[in-house]
Amino acid sequence: MFKDRLQRAQNLMSDNNIDAMLLSVGADLPYFTGYEAMPLERLTMLVIRADEQAVLVIPELEAPRVTAMPELFKIHPWKETEDPVSIVIDLLRGLETVAIGDTTWSRFTIDILNYLPKLQLTKASNITSKLRAVKREDELLRLQQASSAVDRIARRLQSGEIDLLGKTEKQISDEIGRQIILEGHHKVNFAIVASGENAASPHHEPGERIVKESEVILCDFGGTMIGADGVGYCSDITRCVWIGEPSQEFLEMYQVLQEAQAKQVQFCQAGTPAEEIDRVGRKIIADGGFGEFFIHRTGHGIGVEAHEDPYIVEGNHEPLQIGNVFSIEPGIYIPNKWGARLEDIVAVTSQGPLSLNEAEHNLASIV
Description:
By secondary structure, the chain is of the alpha+beta class. The protein has helices spanning 2-15, 28-33, 84-92, 106-115, 125-133, 137-159, 169-182, 248-266, 274-287, and strands at 20-23, 45-49, 54-59, 73-78, 97-100, 120-123, 187-195, 215-226, 232-234, 237-243, 299-301, 308-312, 325-328, 331-334, 338-341, 344-349, 352-355, 364-366. The chain has 9 helices and 18 strands.
């Protein structure tokens, strides 16, 4: 797996006249090596050259955490009294164009340019995003596993197995987080719980508001499930639950949202421009009278990060490819009143769109 990824990266680098790629903290490093660098002031950096074996420059005290793969990359531990940037510079001498990881600390980028002021820097995401956006079969299986885990939690929410009435948003969020871990994830990425008028805030921070009768609860949650190779894959799902009998007004709004989401999933076909998926759902919501209340993009890619390419948004003209995996999550948010969002993770396959989430899409009511 890692050998294939490094080889494909080197091929793309050659095609784009990039001499080397520098990857530090963030998701790219574990994607290529299985090792996730701690966000320390000590430099960790994978140096990938198009024509040589990769080198992982790493603090000596962190080196034991790396699974050695000498056939793929060398490990160059540096001591506390050494300057790690100078080690990287030695690996770059004679090169002209270098791609650097988007999440590299600026202090190290500046130090590298101070050493080599004529170096042409570009974004590594021009290479890595293209690779990570197209999932191989093993990656899709791992995303399915993570999605199935949060599906089980969503079903418990919808059936009333998770206590909601009389609980604070934070208590419910904490319980969802606990269940994310119990379902095999290694960490909780987020557990949004927004009740009543708070559901009008798409990224509401769960607080001390107590869930009451006759109101909606929007729950958006996911985590990271790490495999034996050290690489994690993410989950993400949103479902709404109504406490009591839903009002006709809310049901009509939710029906528009559900229709838009279902139609968008149908359009997730190879060759369809990403923005077209956004448009088809946005039109349904606008025709239903709620256009001004759909205030965010339709979706985001998902993989080793919760948000990555491709983004399903107006202005993204790129056609979908087999292997793309992303969220489809339209929402309607009416300030000071309520909101709703419905989210599935969808994969583009040769047989058409594949929804990785199967929890009930109809509005659940806890009576």
